[in-house]
Amino acid sequence: xxxxxxxxxxxxxxxxxxxxxxxxxxxxxxxxxxxxxxxxxxxxxxxxxxxxxxxxxxxxxxxxxxxxxxxxxxxxxxxxxxxxxxxxxxxxxxxxxxxxxxxxxxxxxxxxxxxxxxxxxxxxxxxxxxxxxxxxxxxxxxxxxxxxxxxxxxxxxxxxxxxxxxxxxxxxxxxxxxxxxxxxxxxxxxxxxxxxxxxxxxxxxxxxxxxxxxxxxxxxxxxxxxxxxxxxxxxxxxxxxxxxxxxxxxxxxxxxxxxxxxxxxxxxxxxxxxxxxxxxxxxxxxxxxxxxxxxxxxxxxxxxxxxxxxxxxxxxxxxxxxxxxxxxxxxxxxxxxxxxxxxxxxxxxx
Length: 350
Fold this sequence. Notes:
Radius of gyration: 20 Å
Strand order of the largest sheet: 2-3-7-8-11-14-15-16-18
Order of helices and strands: EEEHHEHHHEEHEEEEEEEEHHEEEE
Largest sheet: 9 strands, mixed
Shape: globular
Structural class: alpha+beta
Oligomer: single chain
Distance between the termini: 13 Å
Strand content: 25-35%
Number of helices: 8
């Protein structure tokens, strides 16, 4: 053990002010804030010190650059070129893309494929969208069995000189479960380079509480109750200079024949993950790790997920189980406070 139309955020920023005008806060105590729609979600960055518009210009220019390289829906992106050349030839990609894919393969390896960047064909088959509520049909067993062999991270090769090769035809990658984490880390890097020491980064629910508040106190982040509307939180997570990322079965889902089908897919069955977990929140030093781990641990379930998180330095987890039990990894126990005792949830040792 170590010492939606817009996608609805699953983490509530409890004590953060919400304005989004570009000129807000330059000459006041309010944060300087900007919000844009990128990577198919709402992204907001709030700066609390050294508030300069040119810093936000750099931040959002970088976010646009990352999207242009790693979006599967942009024709000229590295990801699209890799997919188009699957089973044909390697593709030279930007070093940023190479780094993100290398990290994705790492998490695929340590999770034995529970996390898999080649899951794109299954994602396309299910096509779960934000804001969706009900469906009249779902993919058939035959359709799923046909697609499942295409999901195998071992077909994704890292070659020299920033070349990437998908060995099998019809295979595809999707970096949607990692790219926002990478983007949050890049935003933080730009803020540091521009002498910003206090900021809140919110990239579609991927949170980075940058630095500490002006009074040297922790940021207070509310963890969403999976059974309630956004804004109903179970408890408070007190953090300083950390990333918080959550994955849950309540983010994007639809109902078919009175059963919930969500967007986090099981690479072994081809169906949405079906285990004892409703949500997993990751506290980490790097958001790229938190992004991968939130999906990975949700897919692994409580036992294997807790075993994995306890083997990783610099990362902690909150597991919310369907029986209303909250399990905390060892290093996060002093940071989480259960505040909504009337919701019927309890915190227990694992």
